[in-house]
Amino acid sequence: MIGFLKGTLAAKHPPQLLLEVGGIGYEVEAPMSTFYQLPETGQPVQLLTHLLVREDAHVLFGFATEAERQLFRNLIKVSGVGARIALAILSGISVEAFVRCVQAEDVASLTRIPGVGRKTAERLIVEMRDRLRQAGSALAQAMPAGDSGSPADEAFGALVALGYRAPEAQRLLKLVEGKAHSTEELIRAALQAAAR
After folding, report:
1. 3-state SS assignment for residue 112
2. CA 20/CA 76 separation, integer angstroms
3. Distance between CA atoms of 152 and 174, rounded to whole angstroms?
């Protein structure tokens, strides 16, 4: 398995790029989220990679961050979602926004991504919810801390991590709206509301 490539960016033609490493040119496919972070051609670059071995080809995918690579690896395990749709998802939505869509069961936002229909979006929510909930999930660990947004967003994420379904977590947070301001206060107030 090729874990990463470090070399010179020889060419970029989305979704493909050419990376020269030690005199060898590696063709790599990457999501637009990675392309936006690439330097100009001729500049040094390092990409995390995933090698997909198929019957007819070996395809190397490149990612700017570990969170992107982990999400890609989890997406291609979802039935009916191949590498092309996984790249489209990473090109159309950030890792953090995708996680929030899954937690909130937001089918509408996922269907705005080209190539993702309603059935695929529903399947993504069902199958990815369990993967994201796993304690110690590599994807959850790879996501930057404190990048989840407002205290209400962070409290929502914490309630979902505690096992509350997304609609129930939203209902509890609405009950305590205006009564608490920090993330900790919101979580405590929501848990007290749930106990009543």
Report:
1. coil
2. 27
3. 10
Task: Find the helix or strand (DSSP H, E) in which 27 lies.
Answer: strand 24-29
Please tell me the pTM assigned to this model: 0.69
Task: Please give the Cα distance from 24 to 175 (Å, whole number).
Answer: 59
Dist. CA 93–CA 189, nearest whole Å = 32
What whole-number distance in Å separates Cα of residue 71 and Cα of residue 94?
10
**Residue 120, SS3 per DSSP:** helix
User: What domains are defined for the chain?
Assistant: 4-63 (2.40.50.140), 66-142 (1.10.150.20), 151-195 (1.10.8)
- Tokens (6 digits) for 171: 């209902």
For the stretch 135-193, pLDDT in tens is 345 565 544 444 445 677 777 777 776 777 777 777 888 888 877 778 888 888 888 88
